[in-house]
Amino acid sequence: MHFIIIRDFNAILNKKLDRSNPREIKSVKPNPLHTWLQKQSFTNTYRTLYFFEKKCTWSNTSTSTRIDQVWVSEGLTHGLLEAGIMDMSMTIESDHDIITMCLNLSHLIANLGIAIVKRKAVKRTVFLYEEQIMHENKQDYLDEIWSIIERVIIEAANKSLPKKKVSNIRYTKAKEFNQTYMHRPILQISRWMRYIRDRLDLLIKETDMLEFNLTIEKINTDLQLEIQQAEDI
Known about the structure:
Blueprint: E1 4-8, H1 32-39, E2 43-44, H2 45-49, E3 58-59, E4 64-65, E5 68-72, H3 74-77, E6 80-86, E7 98-103, H4 106-109, H5 114-119, H6 138-160, H7 174-178, H8 183-198, H9 206-223
Antiparallel strand pairs: 1-5, 2-5, 3-4, 6-7
């Protein structure tokens, strides 16, 4: 069985991301329902897709929070495509916005339910965003951004680049990988991020930033991603 839970929880998970004025409260008291959902492997749809997006669903005259949430059971998480928040302040007389979600259920229709997925040892990546610490330190924050970009690149490569299953032996087929059309851009963006990280306190040349942004643009176009460019980070 599969479940979708959508409601006003009257509670948040992260005071920095789910509240407009995080300094007003010292800490977030765990909500029993949130704790139960996480133990049952439910997914917070909006935060799963938008790791560091700060957007609220309820507001009054002094503060705003993201207390309206959609959670789905583990089997539905595989088909999660989109989650959004629609501003309704000018449409209806309510202090709550509308929360939306889009699911692809083809993996269920094709008889690839939870039991079959587990039996075939198909694995998915779970981002532990609740354990993510928003560092004030500039170096830590850059490392944090770099880790996110690395995960996006790996996920995109797994979805788009040619691959095949092999025995569990550590070896590299460099010749075959060099023939893939995205090999060079992926290496370029990796080198650029290390270049930026190593020169954190130095001024980046305008020509270097332009070349980096062009590389990001090609990755986004070819793999249909939305990696932010240098001037936006």
